[in-house]
Amino acid sequence: MARAGLRAILDAHEGITVVGEAADGVSVVGEVKRLRPDVVAMDVRMPLLDGIEATRTVLRTIANPPKILMITTFENDDYVYEALRAGADGFLLKRARPAEIANAVRTVAQGDSVLYPAAVRSLAAGRRNDSARAILARADLTQREVAVLRLMAKGLSNAEIATELYVGSETVKTHVSSILAKFGARDRTQAVIVAYESGFV
Predict the structure, then answer these.
(1) Distance (Å, rounded) from C-alpha 117 to C-alpha 201?
(2) How far is 185 from 20, CA to CA, in rounded Å?
(3) Angle, vertex CA 139, rays to CA 121 and CA 70, nearest 5
(4) Which residue of 30, 132, 163, 185 is 20 to 30 Å from 196, comparing CA positions?
(5) Phi and psi for 50 in degrees, rounded to 5?
């Protein structure tokens, strides 16, 4: 029933096509390999294989993997945080409005992340660690990269960061790419997690 509702919401939005569904975490991997979607809306809690392990498996075993958007009931779900650490591109609450769901899919498809900064900050609070602090220290971010990372951690998209800093979107993309390279991060979500776990924000 939940999948049918989500499918109806997404199919109703122009530019989004639902190419398949999976009933459990094990099926997700096979369906992603077969259908090659741009985005996977992945439930955190699924039978046979949960969303965290399904995310890890998809990212580890599939070349050019899709963006992964976790779907959860509660924003303070520890499973969500672990899924983000595993490589998911963001998360969305099941109670989100249809337009928010569609926008989240578009956002991750474009390479941005979908995060709730207050929730991520709360979940990261007990996970401060030396490893993240070491990554931040080695990165030696420029002053502009520091500003960009702070805004990324607030959940702003590249376009929103560009507006905030009065620079072009391409300039922001360059700074984001530099931050990811310096952090050794797969994507901006991973960089934001380092920012929180290191105590940077």
Answers:
(1) 10
(2) 29
(3) 35
(4) 163
(5) -75, 170
pTM comes to: 0.77
Task: Walk along the chain (201 residues) and give the pLDDT tens digit of each residue.
Answer: 888 888 999 999 989 999 999 988 889 989 999 999 999 999 888 888 888 899 999 999 998 999 999 888 876 667 778 888 888 888 888 888 899 899 999 988 988 878 776 777 777 777 778 899 999 999 999 999 999 999 998 888 888 999 999 999 999 999 999 999 999 988 888 899 899 889 898
Q: CA 19: distance to chain centroid?
A: 21
| Alpha carbon distance 197, 89 (integer Å) | 17
Q: From CA 156, how far away is CA 199, in angstroms rounded?
A: 19
| CA nearest to 44, candidates 156, 123, 149 | 123
Q: Is residue 172 within 8 Å of residue 148, measured between CB atoms? A: yes
Q: Work out the angle at residue 195's Cα, subtended by the Cα atoms of residues 99 and 29, and round it to the nearest 5 degrees.
A: 55
- The amino acid present at 70, given as its one-letter code, is M
Q: Which residue has the tokens 């940077």?
A: 200
Q: Which amino acid is at 127?
A: R
Distance CA 26, CA 22 (A): 8
Q: How many other C-beta atoms are found inside a 10 Å radius of the C-beta of residue 60?
A: 11
CB atoms within 10 A of CB 95: 9
Q: Specify the residue for token string 């096979």.
A: 30
